[in-house]
């Protein structure tokens, strides 16, 4: 009983004072479905999508979400297969398909073991908050970060990933409504129109 009380007091203390730094990065789940918004800093656009993530066989499927009043906008499905280093881009209405070789290596949604701890804190405020931890690839006094990842402390779900590829390409991706496991593994199978896929990427806008 006394021990329980101590734990409760310690927990209450943590809530008031903020969070202790973790001993190391948490281990992110390997397979999940969810939703995301990717913000591209150069175009200033936010792109919403459903995502299925398979860190076991290195596949990602992104289904862009339709929105009203987007006259020139085409919506795509993207299937990334890193074991074969190809990406399929499928126009949702016509199923027109492009097959494009991937040039960047597989980069899982997780926190590399040697990451630099940045902060631990609560998202939200009193009465409604979620503990998260923030890591980066910064090397103190040697290198600015090109990646920052925010993950929930308890189950290590990704919350936000920010990448700076070079001076002109920075993206921030926010993840939410995540569910463990992949409900429909068929989402990683390209449609039959991809058997005669074109080799160049289709433009997002038609005018
Ligand atoms: C996207 O995900 C949401 C929430 O999980 C779901 O309700 C919706 O049906 C999904 N949309 C499509 C097109 O699969
Ligand atoms: C972690 O290790 C990788 C691979 O060796 C290296 O490229 C990266 O710079 C390291 N990151 C940090 C923050 O030390
Ligand atoms: C930045 O990276 C993007 C994507 O990798 C590439 O297309 C672009 O040419 C690069 N720009 C510069 C200035 O290096």
Overview of this structure, please?
With 207 residues, this protein is mainly beta. It has a single domain (31-194), classed as Clam (outer membrane lipoprotein receptor (LolB), chain A). The protein contains one helix and eleven strands, in the order αβββββββββββ. It has one helix at residues 2-17; strands at 31-40, 45-54, 59-64, 76-81, 86-91, 97-101, 116-125, 128-136, 147-152, 158-166, 169-180. The mean pLDDT is 90. Residues 112, 114-116, 137, 139 line the site of one 2-acetamido-2-deoxy-beta-D-glucopyranose.
Task: Chart the SSEs and their pairings.
Layout: H1 2-17, E1 31-40, E2 45-54, E3 59-64, E4 76-81, E5 86-91, E6 97-101, E7 116-125, E8 128-136, E9 147-152, E10 158-166, E11 169-180
Antiparallel strand pairs: 1-2, 1-11, 2-3, 3-4, 4-5, 5-6, 7-8, 8-9, 9-10, 10-11
Bound molecules: 2-acetamido-2-deoxy-beta-D-glucopyranose (3 copies).
